[in-house]
Design goal:
- The chain has 546 residues and is an all-alpha fold.
- The protein is built from 23 helices and no strands.
- The protein has two domains: 252 residues, no CATH class; 232 residues, no CATH class.
- It is 82% helix and 0% strand.
- The protein is globular, with a radius of gyration of 26 Å.
- The relative contact order is 0.06.
Length: 546
């Protein structure tokens, strides 16, 4: 038999996809556009300073891309085969576990590697500008490749262990966070407590972030410790192969449907009680909400969902209090407040979009949405039920976040240095609070429409987040670049009021345009969209020449 036949077959299939060729082009164009924006905004700075900003911005963004790409690329490669029942058929042949794992890894990682190869040459521009050394550039490039290999291997291991995509993504995310963030953070904390060096701890070397930052000499923290880079690089590479080996061992044994044991049945029952409550609680909740809205009862009956949101806010609050306890009044500055507000808003918006799309896309995929539409339930009842479920899960946390941001706004107004600074602080936070409410409403309508009309939840999520959150930021970045150039050549200063008005106007325009359009289409074409069969969309060339 041919060596690694699945790899050969998957690479041939990937070579026929148009995305394999166009993805690297779009990634390179995006990185070049970001680099151009950074250079033009810092046009009056020294070339070496601009080169440093450019290198660190691109490389840190590439590091985040490499660490998180496994959650999207490989976490569903084997679990999808399990759900469709085809993984067992592969093992009826002469194929072994490493054949299938290697084939799926090759197919899933091809576009990821092409994307990274498009980023690495652009990272070399600061080297030509004199802002970094050749050694820093090549060690950063090697660390990025190693970080991507680590993320893909963790995703493959999680996919081999789990049956559903959600559990696989969650397991991979927890492993990456534990090894990449929690372990080095614990090592740094221990080193500070004992007045030692973090390099002596193994927990510091298991993180891909350590290998990336070790040679960059940021603030002298690692003092150009090339030995640390070599040790961390080798450790992370060894971990990646361990995860792949575990995936090869688990995959042949995890596809079979075995009867649940007593312990598994007991834990399933406990999880059911925690999630839905006992029989009395379920009966009371059903009696209270079923007559109000049946779809709302179906979508809101899991009790742990609101608890998870509250736990996330609690952890964020504990982290913030830890920073205040460690740094005192130095923690109470504008940068911390702004990052806290923007971070909480972004988490809530992405979480709301995920919940909206997941429910409606799952009902659409399984065909249960069509069954609901032949009952007395109307499309308006389904939309209202989804809104009730989201209110039960997110209304309290959103109000808490809004109150916290309002307190920050009023505190800054009270302690501002002058009238201009107080008015700017108040205007910025008022815009953030208004944008939070409008974005959540628009995410609800557009998420429902995209969930109905997309072939998968992942595609619907990317379209929703891209149109409502990413597109206004991109347009605002282009506007700021043009404004900086005009101010630079015209020797004039930019008015913060005008920039804030443009930012608010772009966000409002996106919410009204896309959210209003989705609301109109849902109210008019809900039944048609729910029963439509997905077909391969025509390319722009076919649409143009028909």
């Amino acid at each position: 038999m041919r060596f690694l036949p699945i790899v050969d077959r998957e690479l041939r299939v990937a070579a026929r996809r148009w995305g394999t060729f166009w993805l690297r082009t779009w990634v390179a164009m995006t990185v070049i556009a970001v680099s151009t924006w950074i250079v033009l905004v810092n046009l009056n700075e020294r070339p070496t300073d601009v080169a440093g900003i450019l290198f660190y911005t691109i490389s840190i963004g590439a590091l985040l891309y490499c660490l998180l790409i496994g959650l999207s690329a490989t976490t569903d490669s084997l679990s999808e085969e399990k759900r469709e029942g085809t993984l067992g058929l592969l093992f009826l042949t002469d194929l072994k576990g490493f054949d299938i794992v290697a084939g799926k890894l090759a197919a899933s990682s091809l576009n990821c590697i092409y994307g990274l190869l498009a980023i690495i040459p652009v990272m070399g521009l600061p080297l030509l500008m004199g802002g970094i050394t050749a050694l820093q550039y090549w060690t950063a490039a090697l660390a990025l490749v190693n970080a991507m290999f680590f993320s893909l291997a963790v995703g493959m291991f999680a996919s081999a262990c789990c049956h559903s995509r959600r559990k696989s993504v969650l397991l991979a995310f927890l492993i990456i966070m534990l090894l990449a963030v929690v372990a080095p953070g614990f090592a740094l904390w221990q080193a500070q407590a004992r007045s030692g060096l973090p390099f002596e701890s193994v927990a510091f070397l298991v993180s891909p972030i350590t290998a990336f930052f070790a040679p960059l000499d940021l603030g002298g923290l690692w003092a150009k410790s090339w030995k640390t880079f070599a040790a961390a690089f080798a450790t992370v590479h060894f971990e990646s192969w361990i995860f792949l080996l575990l995936a090869c061992l688990v995959a042949p044994r995890s596809w079979q449907d075995r009867p649940a044991g007593k312990l598994e049945v007991r834990w399933r029952e406990r999880w059911r009680l925690w999630s839905l409550g006992d029989h009395g609680e379920r009966h009371r909740f059903r009696a209270r909400l079923l007559d109000v809205n049946a779809f709302g009862w179906l979508a809101a009956r899991e009790r742990l969902k609101p608890l998870m949101v509250w736990c996330t806010l609690g952890m964020a609050g504990a982290l913030w209090l830890w920073g205040y306890g460690k740094y005192g009044r130095e923690w109470l500055n504008e940068v911390v407040f702004v990052l806290t507000g923007l971070g909480l808003n972004l988490v809530l918006k992405c979480w709301v979009a995920t919940e909206v799309i997941r429910r409606i896309a799952e009902e659409r995929r399984t065909g249960s949405l069509e069954l609901l539409l032949v009952t007395p339930l109307t499309p308006r009842d389904i939309l209202r039920g989804q809104a009730l479920a989201l209110s039960r899960q997110f209304l309290g946390p959103v109000l808490v976040v809004a109150i916290v941001e309002a307190i920050i706004m009023l505190g800054g107004v009270r302690h501002g240095a002058d009238e201009e600074e107080r008015w700017m602080w108040f205007s910025w936070w008022a815009t953030v609070l208004a944008g939070l409410g409008l974005d959540l409403i628009a995410l609800y309508w557009l998420g429902l429409w995209q969930g109905l009309n997309s072939s998968g939840a992942k595609r619907a999520y990317l379209m929703t987040i891209g149109l409502l959150l990413f597109l206004p930021c991109l347009l605002y970045a282009l506007f700021v670049m043009v404004a900086v150039l005009i101010a630079s050549f015209g020797r004039t200063e930019m008015d913060w009021k005008f920039l804030l008005a443009v930012w608010a106007g772009l966000g409002l325009a996106a919410d009204v345009t896309f959210g209003g359009w989705a609301s109109f289409r849902l109210k008019r074409d809900f039944r048609e969209a729910a029963t439509r069969r997905f077909q391969k969309p025509k390319s722009w060339w076919e649409r143009l020449f028909g």
